[in-house]
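Human: We require from you a protein record containing the residue sequence and its fold in token form, and nothing else.

Assistant:
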Amino acid sequence: YKPQERIDCNFVITINSWDGGSGYTAEAQIQSSRPVFNSTYNSTLLNMSDKNFDFSFNDGSVIDFSDQNYISNISSLLTYYAYTIIGLDKDSFSKMGGTPYFKKAQNIINLAQASGNTGWRAADGLRNRFWFNENTLNPIFSELRSFIYSYHFSGLDQLTDNDKGLMPIVGALNALQQMDKQKLGSIFPNVYFASKAEEITNVLSKLNTQERMKAYNMLSEIDPANIGKYEGLKQN
């Protein structure tokens, strides 16, 4: 990849405790973004907190990587998020383009489950690595993945020259309404819209009053958790 094609990502790891040896109890904030075509603006694709980013590491040791075997939790954590970040990036440039990378992340989960570390299993809670990956590959959320493509590639990437990218976003919201409403509280839509709500509001504020209200009504149904952030669409 050329430097300008590399994905902008950021890991902020907070060490909560140390066992005096090689064991660390930690949490992490993982962020990634992609550039908007013909602009200097980067649009967030992932902003996710992982409360179970625990690992073992000795000073001077090497973090080895393998797609075929579990080596260490730190290696699996970094690899899992690398594939997840690439998958979301690919989804934003081609419809469902991230599937091969989400499947690679799924393989990392399968290998790591036997380690006993938290976050790799369904039983570890509903907001963890297992469920985020499950959501990305679950057909129930295919409308959300299609929205990511339409919003970025057919929408934001077209807005630098004129406003023709606005209507594909509105159309994608309409399609997103078909998603199972009982699944709206799942980790994938929850994490995605928490990081995008303000940006979506700013982008759609360019619509006329009637279209803004239409967008507001759809968003309040699709993403009720962030309804306060969409209030700006109701302003004249």
The chain has two domains: 3-137, 142-234. Residues 142-234 form one domain.
